[in-house]
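Ticket #4471: structure output looks truncated?

Reporter: J.K.
Steps to reproduce: submitted the chain below (705 residues) through the standard prediction queue, then opened the result file.
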Amino acid sequence: MSKVRVYQLAKELGLTNKELITKLEGLAVTVSNHMSTIEEEEVTLIKQLIEEDKKKKEQKETTNKTQAGNKPEKSLKKNEDKTINRKSNNTKKDDKNKNNNNNRTQIHETKEEIAVGNNDERPMIEVGEKIVVKDFAALLKKSVNEIISKLIHMGVMATINQEIDFEFAEKIAAEYEIDVLKNEVTEEVEEENDYIIPEDKDEDLKSRPPVVTVMGHVDHGKTSLLDAIRKTKVTEREAGGITQHIGASEVEINGKKIVFLDTPGHEAFTAMRARGAKVTDIAILVVAADDGVMPQTIEAINHAKAAEVPIIVAINKMDKEGANPDRVKQELADNGIVIEEWGGDVVSVPVSALKWTNIDTLLEMILLVADMEEFKANPNRKAVGTVVEAELDKGKGAIATIIVQNGTLKVGDAVVIGTTHGRIRAMVNSKGKSVKQAGPSTAVEITGLSDVPAAGDQLIAVSDDKNAREIASNRINKIKEQQLKSSSKISLDALFNQVQEGQIKELNVIVKADVQGSVEAVRQSLGKLSNDKVVVRSIHGGVGAITESDVMLASASNAIIIGFNVRPSSGALAAASKEEVDIRLYKIIYNALEDLEAAMKGMLDPEFREVELGKAQIRATFRLPNGNTIAGCYVTEGKILRNSNVRLVRDGIVITDGTISSLRRFKDDAKEVATGYECGIGIYNFNDLKEGDIIESYKMQEIER
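Returned output as attached by the reporter:
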């Protein structure tokens, strides 16, 4: 709502500043000087009152003119009737006095009407079912301390950020002669000051490639099937052979492009799989012919149905003994997926990812379904897309993998992604090549964001940086308001109930991982571990290495830290030792969940904890004739032992975990190398060594209970 300064309103109404301030004080509107501002409602009220005063003045002037016009006639009559006796003069005087008395009575009644009218126009404010004390004080134009004092007199103990009920607000406002109108708050669908995406015209839409999501149960061969299509080997690089991150890639078949999303099959990644189904056009449901329909298979079916996307069933592992496609078809039919051979409308293709059997047939079916569905988008507009994955890189900053769903995304575009904003500095496609723009159904990795967005957030390209910052700032403020409201609604009754139960204990956990999707997966799984005695609560989750601030948060909240594919910094380790904070590091999510569940049940097996021996920094790399790579290192902490376990850490992310194949000082083999000495280190079956990487040497030691 706009505000008007006092001197501007005075100039508009033709009054002096002093006269207007006097009128405002009569209406209980407090202003300090001519530069003060007043609300639009108050301006409207003042204008109405001044208009009424003007009308009454005009009526009074008209009455006075009429009386002045009658005076000459009376004078003539006096001159003509000089012989009128004294009695008649006295009679006229009496009549004149009566008229004057009548005029005084009318003026007095008019003043009373004005006074009554002013009382009817009392200031009014709108208040919802509840209102924060600070906001209520601002509406009343009173200090917060004054409002809190009145609440205390009413028996209500409230702080500046707590909410009070409408009844208390109404009583306090009545003391200041202010009326309160109860405002029934309805939830708005669109956020204020947010961006409204314009709709496209039919003539602007053009055909676009389909986005295909590969879904199914863990270890049914989803990634292997994608390997067969892309002719790459992703599975071998992943811990335990399980897809840990969501990925996107593009394949061109017969001159037509297909975009593939690979979603992890483990049940913990339900949220990631749900996001994949939301951005996809076609879902490929991979079912192992020797295993049949499993729980995550049913979950994948439900996500695909919820997203209302066509499903293509790929019955994998047809080359294995015990493959029974008919049993798979029967189990699919039991779950509402009836294939074409059985009279349904779902396409089914028997494949073997290992033997590359029927891969071409599967791709042809994808293109056939895409032609029937007629997927279209408008490339000649600002881009709209979805974040598939996001992470924090030490050199590049925040990185996000985007699927462009509509429009064209260009380098230099200002974008808003959830509560994050930025200007795109660079874009890299699925093949690792830099591109200047990305059209609909294109997967790209972008940099230039202010922070790491959440996977699943919508990307919107806007006109400029200022607009992007405003939208992101508005969204952050709304989230803060919601958090403030939720935190201020704690009642003494609820607190008393928790104290009475007595047996409830909370286990606070901080989760750090290498990518955002893994953070969500771990936090979601931790929530499911709660039982009637212990409540597991994830108080924080983030991307990147474990830092000192994470340790201090854990110390303040009595929490443990779980690291998933990340390492703590040296400062974090020192702080954890000082604050006695427990840091647990894992590579596979199963181990983290099993350890926590066993600890909660009090049935932990003998525990082996790694003991860090030393650290060495790679300062140069040397290529040997046999193809192996040796790292020229400088030992910065502890000592490096020959045949010990080592891990290679790059920018806080664990790249590999293995054993030392060779340890040398100059040309001689060494059993150990201490701090301050240089050495050559080779890692067994690993050659991706770079300058600046950290090699950590450790051993496993059993912990006595």
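Triage note (M.O.): checked the attachment and the full token line is present. The radius of gyration is 39 Å.
Status: closed, working as intended.
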